[in-house]
Amino acid sequence: MNLQLQNNAFFKEFDQKYAHDKPLGINYIDHLIHVRIWQPVAKEVFIIVFDKDNPEQIVLKQKMSKQDTDWVIDLPNSFDGYYYQFKIIHPDLSETFALDPYALSMAPFDWEGKETKVGKGAFVDLGSSKAGKKPRKLNKVFQSVDPLIYELHVRDFTSLKDPSTLQNRRGTFNALLEANLFDYLKKLNFTHVQFLPLQSTYTVNDLDFQIYGKGEGKKWITNYNWGYDPHNYFSLNGFYSSNPSNPYARIIEFRKLVDEAHQQGIGVIVDVVYNHMMTNTIFNNILPGYYYREQAKIFPVSYPPLADERKMVKRIIFRFAKKLFNQLWCWWISFWSFMFYAPRDN
């Protein structure tokens, strides 16, 4: 079945037959980690688990069980903090390795200038004390004033500071707190901060902490961008944490950042990019041809746009918004460029 050649009518029928709203990704239930991935046409799906101290070392490879449209497996919660991928056997017997689109954190990633590398999700429990406390709610009403929004790139705010003046590494969530970001915004009478995309980005090496000055780097080896090359929508960018090798660190530290913003009466807006990804192999590795509008006449980048009219793509978007609200108390999302879809009957 080649989904890349199908029209809108086909995908409407496909969604009616296969789409659902059951929990996907990982869920901690009692003493187990329940893993579920949507892939209705695969021949087989395996989960591959990697050591938490050595993300290249495989510690488990096990076939998952088919349940209707999904593949599921229960693992002991002793795998908390370990990393994982899926190996998918497609109907034509081709094989791909895939990142969980619902991964809540990730292993450190370095694309090395190659668009074929596959990231690894991390087993993390957002309800655990390991993930830190949820931020306090923002007890402030803005209806009586127009919002004054400060757009901010996490790395840029502290990247030019003398590193000897900071206890935290420049360009991180913790450095923003140390630099008194929210005191600064209050003095300027800003009501909100809008963060440029915070999610995992494909072309940033999480473990390269070098911040280059003007003229010092070339092309992708500068290890810098504003986040508009999404890799995974549910995982925060590891570079912004104090320890990218600890999958809980980025969660704890962003929660602290939001908590401080709310304590200071500053609303938090998160910028997201849902019209494209860095490379379409990210989702095509799961179910080729479904997640992207392959027949589109206009591309936002060099690849076809994300097919946000399809139910299981919409589901990713809505689930991310729900996660921001329920887990991080971010009340606002800036949706960047939903402009490439005009519904048709064919």
UniProtKB/TrEMBL annotation:
Its EC number is 3.2.1.41. InterPro entries: GH, GH13_cat_dom, Glyco_hydro_13_N, Ig-like_fold, Ig_E-set. GO terms for molecular function: pullulanase activity. Residues 182-280 form the Glycosyl hydrolase family 13 catalytic domain. Keywords: Glycosidase, Hydrolase, Plasmid. Residues 23-103 form the Glycoside hydrolase family 13 N-terminal domain. The keyword Hydrolase applies. GO terms for biological process: carbohydrate metabolic process. Belongs to the glycosyl hydrolase 13 family. This is Pullulanase. It comes from Mycoplasmopsis gallopavonis. The gene is amyX.
